[in-house]
Protein backbone atom coordinates (compact mmCIF):
# COMPACT_ATOMS: atom_id res chain seq x y z
CA UNK A 1 0.00 0.00 0.00
CA UNK A 2 2.84 2.43 0.66
CA UNK A 3 3.43 2.97 -3.08
CA UNK A 4 0.09 4.78 -3.28
CA UNK A 5 1.65 8.14 -2.21
CA UNK A 6 -1.32 9.68 -0.37
CA UNK A 7 -1.38 13.43 0.33
CA UNK A 8 -4.05 15.67 1.84
CA UNK A 9 -4.78 19.26 0.84
CA UNK A 10 -7.57 21.66 1.76
CA UNK A 11 -10.44 21.05 -0.64
CA UNK A 12 -11.07 23.54 -3.41
CA UNK A 13 -14.60 24.36 -4.57
CA UNK A 14 -13.56 23.00 -7.99
CA UNK A 15 -13.28 19.51 -6.44
CA UNK A 16 -16.88 19.42 -5.22
CA UNK A 17 -18.45 18.03 -8.41
CA UNK A 18 -16.31 14.89 -8.04
CA UNK A 19 -17.03 14.66 -4.35
CA UNK A 20 -20.80 14.97 -4.80
CA UNK A 21 -20.70 12.34 -7.58
CA UNK A 22 -18.79 9.91 -5.33
CA UNK A 23 -21.32 10.41 -2.54
CA UNK A 24 -24.13 9.46 -4.94
CA UNK A 25 -22.64 6.05 -5.81
CA UNK A 26 -24.88 3.23 -4.57
CA UNK A 27 -22.16 1.54 -2.52
CA UNK A 28 -21.38 4.86 -0.79
CA UNK A 29 -24.79 6.48 -0.43
CA UNK A 30 -26.12 3.73 1.81
CA UNK A 31 -23.47 4.49 4.45
CA UNK A 32 -23.68 8.30 4.57
CA UNK A 33 -26.23 11.09 4.48
CA UNK A 34 -25.13 12.66 1.17
CA UNK A 35 -25.01 16.43 0.68
CA UNK A 36 -25.69 18.61 -2.33
CA UNK A 37 -22.94 20.77 -3.79
CA UNK A 38 -24.59 23.81 -2.18
CA UNK A 39 -24.63 22.11 1.23
CA UNK A 40 -20.93 21.31 0.87
CA UNK A 41 -20.13 24.89 -0.17
CA UNK A 42 -21.98 26.19 2.88
CA UNK A 43 -20.19 23.74 5.17
CA UNK A 44 -16.81 24.70 3.70
CA UNK A 45 -17.43 28.28 4.86
CA UNK A 46 -17.90 27.20 8.48
CA UNK A 47 -14.76 28.00 10.50
CA UNK A 48 -14.98 24.72 12.47
CA UNK A 49 -15.34 22.48 9.39
CA UNK A 50 -12.26 21.33 7.48
CA UNK A 51 -12.55 19.65 4.08
CA UNK A 52 -9.46 17.74 2.94
CA UNK A 53 -9.00 16.41 -0.57
CA UNK A 54 -7.23 13.05 -0.77
CA UNK A 55 -4.72 12.79 -3.59
CA UNK A 56 -3.19 9.52 -4.70
CA UNK A 57 -0.14 9.95 -6.91
CA UNK A 58 -1.19 13.54 -7.72
CA UNK A 59 -4.77 12.53 -8.72
CA UNK A 60 -7.87 13.45 -6.74
CA UNK A 61 -8.97 10.19 -5.11
CA UNK A 62 -11.41 11.19 -2.35
CA UNK A 63 -12.15 13.52 0.49
CA UNK A 64 -12.41 13.79 4.24
CA UNK A 65 -14.57 16.11 6.33
CA UNK A 66 -13.50 17.05 9.85
CA UNK A 67 -15.38 19.06 12.47
CA UNK A 68 -13.19 20.81 15.03
CA UNK A 69 -14.91 20.53 18.39
CA UNK A 70 -12.19 22.11 20.51
CA UNK A 71 -8.47 22.72 20.53
CA UNK A 72 -7.83 19.01 21.05
CA UNK A 73 -10.94 17.12 19.83
CA UNK A 74 -11.78 16.44 16.18
CA UNK A 75 -14.86 14.71 14.81
CA UNK A 76 -13.94 12.61 11.78
CA UNK A 77 -17.20 13.31 10.02
CA UNK A 78 -16.78 11.66 6.62
CA UNK A 79 -14.46 9.90 4.23
CA UNK A 80 -15.39 9.13 0.64
CA UNK A 81 -12.93 7.48 -1.73
CA UNK A 82 -13.68 7.27 -5.45
CA UNK A 83 -12.11 3.84 -5.95
CA UNK A 84 -12.64 1.55 -3.00
CA UNK A 85 -10.80 -1.66 -2.15
CA UNK A 86 -7.27 -0.50 -2.96
CA UNK A 87 -6.26 0.60 0.55
CA UNK A 88 -6.47 4.31 -0.26
CA UNK A 89 -8.99 4.94 2.51
CA UNK A 90 -6.86 3.40 5.25
CA UNK A 91 -3.83 5.41 4.19
CA UNK A 92 -5.97 8.54 3.94
CA UNK A 93 -7.23 8.01 7.50
CA UNK A 94 -3.65 7.64 8.74
CA UNK A 95 -2.68 10.81 6.84
CA UNK A 96 -5.71 12.59 8.36
CA UNK A 97 -4.60 11.58 11.86
CA UNK A 98 -1.13 13.00 11.18
CA UNK A 99 -2.72 16.17 9.77
CA UNK A 100 -4.80 16.56 12.94
CA UNK A 101 -1.76 16.10 15.15
CA UNK A 102 0.24 18.68 13.19
CA UNK A 103 -2.48 21.30 12.66
CA UNK A 104 -4.70 21.00 15.73
CA UNK A 105 -2.59 19.49 18.54
CA UNK A 106 -5.26 16.81 18.51
CA UNK A 107 -5.62 14.47 21.47
CA UNK A 108 -8.83 12.69 20.41
CA UNK A 109 -10.53 11.87 17.12
CA UNK A 110 -14.02 10.38 17.17
CA UNK A 111 -16.47 9.21 14.53
CA UNK A 112 -19.76 7.44 14.11
CA UNK A 113 -20.61 4.61 11.75
CA UNK A 114 -23.83 2.75 11.00
CA UNK A 115 -24.13 -0.73 12.51
CA UNK A 116 -24.50 -2.31 9.05
CA UNK A 117 -21.24 -0.78 7.77
CA UNK A 118 -19.14 -3.77 8.77
CA UNK A 119 -16.28 -2.88 6.43
CA UNK A 120 -15.98 0.58 7.97
CA UNK A 121 -16.07 -0.83 11.50
CA UNK A 122 -13.36 -3.35 10.59
CA UNK A 123 -11.09 -0.62 9.20
CA UNK A 124 -11.60 1.70 12.16
CA UNK A 125 -10.84 -1.10 14.64
CA UNK A 126 -7.80 -2.14 12.59
CA UNK A 127 -6.51 1.45 12.79
CA UNK A 128 -6.88 1.55 16.58
CA UNK A 129 -10.31 3.13 17.07
CA UNK A 130 -12.38 1.80 19.97
CA UNK A 131 -16.16 1.78 20.29
CA UNK A 132 -17.39 3.91 23.20
CA UNK A 133 -21.13 4.36 22.66
CA UNK A 134 -24.18 3.31 20.61
CA UNK A 135 -27.46 5.05 19.88
CA UNK A 136 -30.49 4.56 17.64
CA UNK A 137 -30.72 6.36 14.29
CA UNK A 138 -34.02 5.46 12.69
CA UNK A 139 -34.16 1.70 12.33
CA UNK A 140 -30.38 1.34 12.71
CA UNK A 141 -27.79 1.95 15.35
CA UNK A 142 -24.92 4.38 15.19
CA UNK A 143 -21.69 3.11 16.71
CA UNK A 144 -19.32 5.74 18.07
CA UNK A 145 -15.56 5.14 17.88
CA UNK A 146 -12.65 7.14 19.23
CA UNK A 147 -8.88 7.18 19.18
CA UNK A 148 -6.69 9.02 21.69
CA UNK A 149 -3.23 10.41 20.94
TrEMBL record:
GO molecular-function term, one example from the UniProt record: acyltransferase activity, transferring groups other than amino-acyl groups
Annotated PROSITE patterns: GNAT (PS51186)
The keyword Transferase belongs to this UniProt entry's keyword annotation: yes
Keywords attached to this entry: Transferase
Domain N-acetyltransferase: start-end pairs: 4-149
Superkingdom in the source lineage: Bacteria
Pfam family, any one: Acetyltransf_1
Record has Transmembrane as a keyword: no
Listed name of the protein: Putative acetyltransferase
Organism field: Pseudoalteromonas phenolica
Lineage of the organism: Bacteria, Pseudomonadati, Pseudomonadota, Gammaproteobacteria, Alteromonadales
Amino acid sequence: MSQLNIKLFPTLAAHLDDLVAWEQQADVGEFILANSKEQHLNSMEEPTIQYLSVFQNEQLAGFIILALESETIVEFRRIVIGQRGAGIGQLAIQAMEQYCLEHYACQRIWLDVFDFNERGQHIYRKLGYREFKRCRHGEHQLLFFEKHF
